[in-house]
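[Meeting: bench + compute handoff]

Bench side (C.D.) handed over the final construct sequence. Compute side (W.E.) agreed to return the predicted structure before the next meeting so the bench team could plan truncations. Sequence as handed over:
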Amino acid sequence: LLAALGQMPPLPRRPPPAQPPLQPASASQSNTQRDPAAPSKVRTRKHKSYALAYQGVLRLLFQNIRGMYDDEFRKYLLHKSCLISDVRVFAETGCINENEERQWAQDCPGCSHVFWATPQDMPRTNGHTGRGMAIFISKRIPFQDARVFRDPDGRYIIVRCRIHNRETLIVGLHADNTDDAAQQAYYNRVLNRLRDEGLDKDTCHALDVHVVADCNNVENRQLDYARGRAKDGSRQPTDTMTETLRPLGVAALQRLQ
């Protein structure tokens, strides 16, 4: 077989494939020298625009601020919270007059609206009164048509508005933790106010409802992760708390981590 293969004539060589015709180089591709008299192009650096990844995103933050009379730290805190949230709900603000409220608003220039629920008889007790609430709205979100419902005792504030052209309800709660009776009365007060404004289960179903709260309670002590180390005097779950939060879309109220 090898001898027979050695006697076979060599196969003809294939011609090389035809090359595409050469195209004349453009002015930008040619190696010709630039005319010195021509004006030179100045390269400018384009800055990136950091848009939100999704449209209609609303970031909410709740913080029990326990009064903040350190001016420098308050400015720092409000600035940081403005960077990470669009709606900020503060509890225990401790402001006792409109001048202090105005100063807080000036400390957060990134906000377009600030709403307050300050009781008229707010005492000065080193910043910790357990009362006074505020909602700060960022300039980043389209916010309009606001209606505000304030607690005379400064423990809840509700804002009905339009955000991203959607009917929205923002509910800021800071439940009374004095004793079981006081907390029961607190939730009764919130529930009656919601009913007076026509905010029931059917009405809230058509709204974007955001509950930002410190409820100072849980629905089931057995499911609460901190049940083994709950301190004496912890509030007992109440039916009024559940009845108040269910129409707002709160499915469960437990500490899960």
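W.E. noted at the follow-up: The longest helix spans residues 180-196. C.D. will use this when planning the next construct.
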